Amino acid sequence: MPGAAEPTADAAMLTLARESRGMTQLDLATAMTAIAQGDRISQGYVSKAEAGRLAVNGARLDLYAQALHYPADMLCIQPNVTGIGIGLVHHRKRAALGAQPLRRIHAELALARLQVRGLVSPEADVVHGFERTSVTDLESPSDAARMLRKLWNVPAGPIHDLVLIIEQAGGLILVRDLGRGGSSAVRSQRSCSQ
Question: Which of 87, 149, 54, 70 is CA-nearest to residue 41?
């Protein structure tokens, strides 16, 4: 189509995609150089692209996509993940977990949020079995659990397939391999208003 703008990568998405792969800027530049067959890509180029100081489109966008193993179209999405830090990600941290693995986990969770946003629209008429339950001085967590079991027809005793129960209630479960080195538990949450 004449006059159509060429797809261009979003700088924030380039950073997010790279961090989700656990790569440094130098790692990515090296991977891109290996794919480019003779065209040397520097760490400085990657830095400028992530800072938004140069446009990444055409063959360079394809090169990024190949090196990061993501579709080129995804690299053009504006991630809008400014809140993906302390307020939305809760984790227990082992002493061995460094800054780079933690950035990779946060980037993976941010990408997972983007995927879920693509699957679930706020305008959609979603039917689910979730009810807001407050735990007060008169109502213990055990009382809330009993009420939920009754609402979802879950018999007393051990729960053998929690994922199945949540999916049957209309929940969406997204599984991500966040690696085993350093983080013993990670949970992401999204505040909902009803």
Answer: 54
